Amino acid sequence: MSDDQIEKKEQSKLDELIEVMAVLRAPGGCPWDAEQTHESLIKYLVEETYELIDAIESGNREEMIEELGDVLYQVIFHADLASTTPGEEFDIQDVAAHMTAKMVGRHPHVFGENKLETADDVMAVWDDLKKQEKPGRTSTLDGIPQSMPALALAEKLLGKAEKVGLEKQHLPDPPIWADEDEVGSILLSIVSSAREQGIDAEKALRVRLRELQEDIREAE
Question: What is the pTM assigned to this prediction?
Fold first, then answer.
């Protein structure tokens, strides 16, 4: 067996995928892949992420494998782009090294001596660990992507509001919901009613969320 054959046999499936990407973007590879930029790939990353969510919610094993692969491929694509972009010049190994260090640093109860017993204990110190990583941030809102879907952004911001005592201010007392189906029906009814009256429900919620963020920053 040749040295090349031994190396190929020992190569992991992840390494093979990284190699495929390198070949596709190398001279003589795929013209489309070679022309892509971080910006041009954004729409595909968003689309693949939503397809993965659908696969997770369906519980279909084969679909989850496929869609996880599609999201992974996007990460590898961006890393390969960076490896040949002046001023960026990092690759997938740098991405993995950064993430490893980040996760080890955020889990001192696992990799260090700061033992925490419950998930609530972990969350209680999580924000402090993030602040240590990014000392330049002045607000708990810094770093929250404003392009998130409005409902997902609302849930994120309400969690931040809770920490400064604002989560229920200026809001009517909510009813007790029976289950997710009931909540979904009410939300759909609200969107339908708004649509009939010419109101963009997504935009309306985003406007209110901007106000909530201003309140949070003032409280901080």
Answer: 0.71
Q: Which domain holds residue 186?
A: 145-219
Residues 47 and 55 sit within 8 Å (Cβ to Cβ): no
Residue 155: inside a domain, yes or no? Answer: yes
Segment 179-189, tens digit of pLDDT = 999 999 999 99
In this prediction, residue 57 carries a pLDDT of: 93
| DSSP classification of residue 2 | -
Residue 41 has phi, psi (to 5 degrees) of: -90, -10
Residue 112 makes CB contacts below 8 A (sequence gap 6+) with none
Which residues, at least 6 apart from 81, have a Cβ–Cβ distance to it below 8 Å?
25, 36, 37, 38, 41, 88
Q: How many structural domains does the chain have? A: 2
| Residue pair 154/209 in contact by the 8 Å Cβ criterion | yes
168 and 176 Cβ atoms separated by less than 8 Å: no
